[in-house]
Amino acid sequence: MKDQQDNQFTPEPEVMPIPLASEDNGLSVRQKVKILNLYIDNFYKDEFLKKLKQGIVFTPNVDHLMQLQSNRQLLQAYKAADYVICDSQILVYASKFLGTPFKEKLAGSDVFPAFCHYHKDNPDIRVFLLGAAPGVAKKAQERINARIGRKIVVGEYSPPWGFENDEQECHKIVQLINESNATVLGVGVGAPKQELFISKYKHKFNPNIKIIMGIGATIDFEAGNVKRAPKFLSDIGLEWFYRFSVEPRRLWKRYFVDDVGFLWLILKQKLKLYKAPF
């Protein structure tokens, strides 16, 4: 009878408390919420900014969750990340439906500028931006530095298309970052490229690179190259529709083909019918 019980499947909890060493060497509880096959940290923004001292930060949205249903390599990269924060109001709605609500949405495009502002007077925070089209990262660098009032962004590079398949180019990028004197790396080349690049090359960076963030379209937003959705649309979960209206040719497949199954998967999770693919 005991052997039978031991072999029964025990589902993973929807909310997972993780004890972490806090700054005062005591124990604090870090809560994660399970959405499909991914545990996502549950923070308020101010709480996260205070806690983030080092590590890899990924920012999943609906599209990432759908990719995680078929991309084992991406899932492994996510599992190795130190922080995984909720980048989507749709995920916030899903968490409420599942009975395990997120405290708030922590979009990378909100968290990154907030991080820079939080550390505006901290000379130990020096950022390198990797991503966007030629000239865009440079413009983002100039605008961020002007807004912060110091040279917080110390380097930038816009990689060529297909760089992730060019080992020589990737090593050149690593060298640029290592020579920049940066302590923070923001990678905005889209998913899954940015997560896989970070996962593959994280051990090649100098030890002074303490924080690595996947920041998606943030570099375009910071440069003013792409306009963000109005706040009220973002707050009600329609930023995706605004982005589609701005870039329909690039985003129609993502939103109307690749991601349409998300609600069905969430319903299956609610009914305890969802099974992780890996």
From TrEMBL:
Keywords: Glycosyltransferase, Transferase. GO terms for molecular function: hexosyltransferase activity. It comes from the Bacteria. Pfam families: Glyco_tran_WecG. This is Glycosyl transferase WecB/TagA/CpsF family. It comes from Coleofasciculus chthonoplastes PCC 7420.
